[in-house]
Design goal:
This protein folds into 2 domains: 206 residues, inorganic pyrophosphatase (n-terminal core) (Alpha-Beta Complex), CATH 3.90.1640.10; 121 residues, Diaminopimelate Epimerase, Chain A, domain 1, CATH 3.10.310. The chain has 12 helices and 12 strands. The two termini are 33 Å apart. The mean pLDDT is 96. It binds manganese (II) ion.
């Protein structure tokens, strides 16, 4: 991944005078959304701009400790404040998503400000053609936090990144790569990690805080999802788990509790695709993961009105759970036999 210098020049021009900046990230914010947003907002502030970080809804409990998490405004609980800030923004930076629909309820407040410059920093496939004024879109990057590091390095110098920003960026890189085990693990990613270690980040402590802070309910819900609820189909090549609202209530579900569940079936030998169907009050969220050449981005686009990355994607269904499971079975059969 190389950021062309003319884009950096353009960004410098846009940031030549002090700006009111809104840094926004996606619905159900994850470690990468928060990590990249926090570090990017801090960088803008160090350059003399005002920055507010906004996400559409609450982030999971296991990310609350992140340095800078306390500055993130949640639209769902601060709608008036965020709407006013969105109206006043000179620049809106969209991080870790490229489709405005991923802002859910927050999108109207963003769309209403037609005068703001729109900037994209993201690693998802196929950003919309004419929506952003300047795009740093790198789908071959393992996380937005990695892109943010490279961007900050070129714009403000690596010295602009302190230990707290480094910790936030590391959380993004670590969580989006499944603790450095998925794809796009380039030598340069590890050089960046080395630079963050030199900033003094505490990797064992970060690991412990992110991965060992589950509630009892979450661990029992996981055992329920993998035990009675996991179904292997297509000769063991695809796995499907479903959780209804009723089941979620039974296990005291808190938002973020099902994060990562969809990865577990891929640890079974022979399973190439895994799906988690999670019911909420409006629709069923379909999360998909795969191994190797199995392209769940294509699968999500074709069958579940969604998309994402080749090995990690999502979509939705407005059918009942029974019908959605049936649709998944049919789609998987068609997908694996073509
Ligand atoms: Mn990401």
């Amino acid at each position: 991944m190389k950021i062309p210098s003319d884009k950096i020049t353009r960004l410098r021009e846009l940031l030549a005078t002090p700006k009111n900046v809104l840094v926004v990230s996606h619905y159900n914010p994850d470690g990468d959304a928060l990590g990249s947003s926090i570090a990017w907002a801090r960088t803008l502030e160090s350059m003399g701009h005002r920055a507010m970080c906004v996400v559409p809804n609450r982030f999971p409990h296991f990310l609350e400790w992140m340095p800078g998490a306390d500055r993130i405004r949640v639209f769902a609980s601060h709608a008036d404040e965020v709407t006013a800030a969105a109206a006043e923004a000179d620049m809106i930076c969209c991080l870790d998503f490229n489709n405005p629909s991923r802002l859910e309820g927050l999108s109207a407040a963003i769309e209403a400000n037609t005068g703001a410059t729109k900037l994209l920093i993201d690693h998802h496939l196929a950003p919309p053609e004419d929506y952003f004024d300047l795009m740093f879109s790198y789908p071959d990057s393992s996380s937005t936090s990695y892109i943010a590091y490279k961007l900050i390095e070129q714009l403000a110098g690596a010295d602009a990144i302190d230990r707290d920003m480094g910790t936030a960026l590391y959380v993004g890189m670590m969580t989006d790569t499944g603790n450095f085990s998925f794809s796009f693990l380039t030598p340069d990613l590890f050089r960046v990690v080395a630079a963050l270690v030199e900033k003094g980040i505490d990797i064992p402590d970060i690991n412990h805080r992110v991965y060992n802070s589950y509630s009892e309910g979450r661990v029992r819900l996981l055992s329920h999802a993998l035990g009675p609820k996991m179904e292997l189909i297509e000769g063991g090549r695809a796995a499907c788990m479903s959780l209804t609202e009723k089941e979620l209530r039974r296990f005291n579900f808190k938002q973020g509790d099902s994060e990562g569940f969809v990865n577990y079936p891929l640890s079974i030998e022979g399973v190439l695709m895994s799906a988690l169907l999670l019911e909420n009050h409006r629709f069923i969220r379909v999360s998909l993961r795969s191994r190797g050449d199995v392209d769940v981005n294509a699968f999500a686009r074709r069958y579940f009105d969604g998309g994402g990355h080749k090995n990690a994607a999502g979509g939705k269904s407005t059918d009942t759970m029974e019908r959605t499971i049936e649709r998944f079975r049919t789609a998987a059969a068609e997908f694996f036999n073509n």
